[in-house]
User: What shape does this take?
Amino acid sequence: MYLVNRYIASFDFFLPYDFAHYQLGDLCGGIIFPAYVNVLCETVSGKTLICNFASSLALSVGCSICWEVLAPMVLEFSTPDPLDACMYVIGGILYLKAFKLTAGNRK
Assistant: This one.
């Protein structure tokens, strides 16, 4: 969804322009990153790390701090944005909802 919005066709024809161009990627990142962490953890240890609200929130807040607080201190082109931080958390919650809904489909 991020790649399509970024490089092929912007979703601003049905989403607000600012959301489609500035927050949608962060929302997608908030969904994808916990999935990536779980795939890595399951591959290495056989355990699912992001499987409850506390772990999802901890990862989302950690990512928000890294990308919206620490990165702007180090990278000249990075800017802090509280809405982006909110999108990471909302994405983490959406991932957790999808994870819980598909729990019966996993082995």
